[in-house]
Structure to design on (132 residues):
């Protein structure tokens, strides 16, 4: 089975329920086509780097899934193109390094070192300095 990752941006003018229903529609589409969903991430509404369709923000979603054949990608992207609620989408095929990176990120092995350093600096700054 090949593993894929798809990120898409939904119009922010929809209500919260409509945004979730739209995203859920695509997740169900994958499930109905015998894809195994590995991970779903809802990033929430974020600012766009540049305006798209006169919008400056969008609701971001990422879904990681496994599929026997790549034919589902064409179907999924066709559905994205036809749906006016989707501003942009990007689907990539993950190699073994991408799969490992995503697993490590979900397990908390990536990005923790900086957080530990920041916490140590904060403790150091908060602790009163001993006078000699």
């Amino acid at each position: 089975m090949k593993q894929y990752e798809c990120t898409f941006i939904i119009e922010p003018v929809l209500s919260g329920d409509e945004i979730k229903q739209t995203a859920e529609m695509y997740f169900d589409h994958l499930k109905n086509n015998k894809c195994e969903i590995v991970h779903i991430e809802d990033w929430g509404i974020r600012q766009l780097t540049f305006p798209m369709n006169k919008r400056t923000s969008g609701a971001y979603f990422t879904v990681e899934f496994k599929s026997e054949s790549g034919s589902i990608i064409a179907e999924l992207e066709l559905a994205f193109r036809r749906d006016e609620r989707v501003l942009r989408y990007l689907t990539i095929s993950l190699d073994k390094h991408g799969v490992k990176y995503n697993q490590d990120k979900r397990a908390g092995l990536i990005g923790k070192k900086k957080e530990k350093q920041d916490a140590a600096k904060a403790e150091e700054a908060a602790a009163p300095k001993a006078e000699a």
Observations:
- The domain at 2-94 is CATH 3.30.70.60 (Alpha-Beta Plaits).
- DSSP finds four helices and four strands in the chain.
